[in-house]
Amino acid sequence: MQLISSADKKEAPQVDLPVQSPQKNARLRGTILLFLLPSAILYLVFVLFPVIQAAYYSLYSWNGLGDLTNFVFVKNYGLAIADKVFLKAVANNLLIVVLSLLVQLPFALMLALVIGKTLPGRSIFRVIFFMPYILSDVVTGVIWQFIYRPEGGLMNTALQRVIPGFQPQLWLADPKMALLSIFLVMVWKYFGLHLVLYVAAIQNIPDEVIDAARIDGSSTLQVVRYITIPLLGSIVRLSIFLSILGSLQYFDLIWIMSNGGPVHASETMATYLMKYGFQSFAMGYGSAIGVIMFATCFVFALMYQRVIMRQDLAGSVTER
Amino acid sequence: MQYVQRRRTIAASAALLPRYLVCIVVACFILVPIVTAVLGSFRTSAELTSVPFALPTVWHVENYTSILSEGTFWQSIENSLIVTFATVALLLAIACPASFVFARIPFRGREVAFNVLLFGLLFPATMAILPLYITLRNLQLVDTLFGLIFPQVAFGLPTTVLILRNFFREIPQELEDATYIDGGTKIDFFWRILLPLARPSLAVIAMLTMVGSWNNFLLPLLVLNSQQLWTLPLGVMQFQGEHSTDWALTMAFVTITMLPAIIFYLFAERYLVAGLTAGAVKG
Question: Between chains, do B262 and A131 touch, taking CB under 8 Å as contact?
Fold first, then answer.
């Protein structure tokens, strides 16, 4: 009925708006409920509820069994801040953040610029560079443990052949080297993600802009410096964001390759949480560590998005 | 004229050379560890200790036959497959309708609900892992594959719904109107128009979810105790622990574990990269 009148679209753009009969309304509500309920239940039970629980548990001293009776308020947080091992873990997380920003991202960016828009065969290189990203952390960790073996491992053998008089290193077993050794593996595994982000952004730069600069007589380096890099701004800011969040939560490779050792040399907040919360049944304490991790990430994410990514986010996720 | 052009092409190829050089060096850095593992799996541990990187003098396949004849390997492959496919299927089954509502059916409180969901983008699974474990224990899901599937789906929801909602919003209103003119309902529109149109996006989400689930380590480590439920990452870890001195055997295990992943990757690379970059580059 209303369909006929809506032939003129400007007057009635939404066909279903005039339908306000109670049955139809109830049916619509039923549809909404039916469509949302499964997601809502899973999300609330397995994501939101545990997160809220973490905040609650963190105020108790609790071994994970029995009732929550031993209310200790913020003592768990105090213990964490006073624990040298935890502080070491935080420092290691920060070190990973700094190294990623200074080594991994510039490396990925340089390589993306080298690949550029035009390099013939670039898709083959992309396939290779991105490959480690899809390997599981366990496989990666075991392969690199094999390479880092002090006795007859590829790393020592190769370095001994290239550098005369090179002393074989213990790598993962050496407190001074462990974290750096693992960081090299992290670069190996994750730089591909940042690379494909940069390459995709470079592909999106219109040819006209570059041609125009060329016609004005700019050299390749000038094009890179004044056109490509400035146009990559938003993607670089995003990749810094992802990299920092990832570094603050990092767990897998470290757990597999060094288990946070030797003597806590490669401990991170996440491995600390697993060891001191889960393995020693200190659920309250572990939850406090989780809350500290979350707070760190949350504050960082909020500030970063407000201050640095503000112009990038206009009109995307948060604004809509 | 021709001369100039030829000089130009020569100059252009000369400029390509250093670029290729850089790419090839990095490609070696990426590939050498993988190739070392594969080659190592065909040698014996004694050979490995004397010369770590070389073609095998004799190609030993005993490592493989001994692994393939073991039940544990097949068991963990099966578990990984079950968990991965169940996660993908359940995630798509519940995320699609939810994204549809968030994209095209306005109701009071929709934006609030959506923001609560997006909040989940900020949570690392690590942070809430202890309470999650307690929750799973209360629901008696510890040491079951469902204890893996449900949380994986739940943590996959925010990203998936975000991507799908944005896709669904871009479908023109005219298509929806046309469905109603033909006497269809909202559900018809969702089921017969939107979902078929979204097939490419769904494929990308499915692939990303597959990789994530196949490689997941932290959650299985916590949830699964009994060996017959272990997924591949746990299987690899356990195997390495048991055969810590026999590197050749371990490398064989690693190689057959990563082989399916690499083959899958070679086919799906384009979609995976597209999926990972699409949102980022546009945003």
Answer: yes
